[in-house]
Amino acid sequence: VNLNVRVYNTWQVTRLLYPDMFIAPGSYVDVAISADHSDDKLNISLPFFSIRNQVRLHRLTMDGTTVDKALRMNVHGDSVIVFIGSGKLPFTQLNIGATASDNNISYDLSWFNTFNSDSNISVLSGTANVAQTDDIVIRLHPSKIFLKDYEFQFNERNAIHIKPHRYEIENLVITTQGSSIGVDGAYDTKDS
């Protein structure tokens, strides 16, 4: 299967499928799926993408291929803006490298926030097990995140369980400049 989708004046179509989504003209999706022994490929380019005016992505590209039954994805975004209440959280130089195989995903995510010094690039690495859709388990690897030039680090032996209507956190420790916060517990979304 070779599928090539080019996008022009999408708001009428996306309004039917997902009313609060906008895809910029000039976007494209190329998919090549093969039943023989060649690798499958995915290429996506979006000059601009928005969901409910809460998340805006500028110049997003995705490239993926399968190698030895593993999907390898690389994602790059020039900028992402997440709107929270009346404020916004800007990200630039967004890069994601991920490999998915046998219901396990390993990922490395890096980005820059404009409120940090130029040399402070945040890096978040980890794994996710998606074998059970009613208990997705995310484990953060030792990583560094910068917020207003303060460096925050995560410990290695932790787990975040995403369940229907519930989040469970096990042994998550966040440290910065000699201080630390340990989190163990659960949050029920039905109660909020």
What would your notes on this structure say?
There is one protein chain. This protein has 192 residues and is mainly β. 4% of the residues lie in helices and 65% in strands. It is built from one helix and 15 strands, in the order βαββββββββββββββ. It has a 15-stranded antiparallel sheet that branches. It is globular and about 50 Å long. The model has no long low-confidence stretch (mean pLDDT 85).
Overview in brief:
Helix content is 4%, strand content 65%.
Provide tags for this entry:
single chain; 192 residues; mainly beta
Quote the distance from N terminus to C terminus. 45 Å
Specify the biggest β-sheet: 15 strands, antiparallel
Number of strands: 15
SSE string: EHEEEEEEEEEEEEEE
Q: What amount of the residues lies in strands? A: over 45%
> Globular, elongated, flat, extended or rod-shaped: what is the shape?
globular
User: Which class do the helix and strand fractions yield?
Assistant: mainly beta
Specify Rg, calculated over alpha carbons: 19 Å
The residue-averaged pLDDT reads 85
Number of helical stretches of at least 4 residues:
1
Explain the layout of strands and helices.
Elements: E1 2-6, H1 11-17, E2 21-23, E3 28-32, E4 41-51, E5 55-67, E6 70-84, E7 87-101, E8 104-112, E9 122-129, E10 136-140, E11 144-147, E12 150-154, E13 159-163, E14 166-176, E15 179-188
